[in-house]
Amino acid sequence: MFGVGIHFFGFRIALQIKPELARSMGDVITAEEQALLHAQHQAQLERLTQQHQAALDKRAKELADAESQHHKQLERLNQVQQTALAQREKKQKDLIASYEHQLELMHGDFKETSMQFSREKKEIDALYRKKLDALNTQMTAMTNKIGELHTLKERFAILAAPAPIKNKMSDSSGRGGPFRPVTFKSTPNAYLEDELEYTIAKISSLNTTALGLQELWTTRYQLLTQLPLGAPLPLALGMNSNFGPRVDPITGTMAQHSGIDFVAKVGTPILAAGNGAVLRAGWDGAYGLTVEIKHAEGYVSKYAHASKLDVTVGQTVTSGQKIGEVGLTGRTTGAHLHFEVLRNGQFVNPMQVLIVPGSTQIAKE
Q1: What does the pLDDT average to over 146-158?
Q2: Model pTM?
Q3: Suppose 243 and one of 3, 237, 349, 361 were both cysteines; which one would form an S-S bond, judging by CB atoms 3.0 to 4.6 Å apart?
Q4: For all residues of the chain together, what is the average pLDDT?
């Protein structure tokens, strides 16, 4: 206890007399030092607080300035946006006004154009209706002309056709009905398009009819070209002996003449009377140099007393083709062409199947 007491009192005495030694030895400070340290700490804290407050005030001022600048920028942007919106609205209004003005002008132009188009359409309709009427008139005349040509063709066909085949030259099929002439006539109040379509349909029908007639006429023409209907000589020469009984020029007695004789000089071309094939070409007794041609419908034409032959057996010939030359070979008293026509092996009068131009020259057989 004495030692402790000495240590305690010695430490206090040392603290009072030599505080630095006591602090170094016992790590203690005096109350005055504590007060001084506290004052220092308090002063430092106040400085720090003042500095922090100053920093806070500065930051607050900066924020306030930044907010003020931001507000000013927002106000400027708002003003700019308001100005842009106002300009845009004004531009849109001006553009709408311009569009409305252009629409009014376009409406006026469209109305005027529509009226002009209507006038032009009426003029065009009138012009085309006039042309359509003229076309209808022409087509009616053409229809009538086709009918006339058909009638004339029938007459010629019947006139040219030999009697045995006249029935093939006419339409014998059973037909009938009321007679309604084909006319082309437009209706003034009808639509022009409908009138044109109707006229075109009638023209197409007429064209079909014409093509049918053409085919019919072609068929009949081809049939006629297969028959000995043409003249066997190129010139209009005379005849002196017809078909039938006659006085034989050599014996002076009555005899049957199986053909007709054409007066002609030696060397005159002999022509095929129709299309066919050469059945015989050569010497044939009293006929002399002779050509026989086989035609359609059982017809055969015969050309006798030739001086020269230009075809051979089996050769195909056409109507009007040269097949030889006139002469006086065989049983004859002078130069001439003896022409015969047979049908199915029977002699027929050649005058019934051809039209022969005549002359006053005479030849005797």
Answers
A1: 65
A2: 0.47
A3: 349
A4: 77
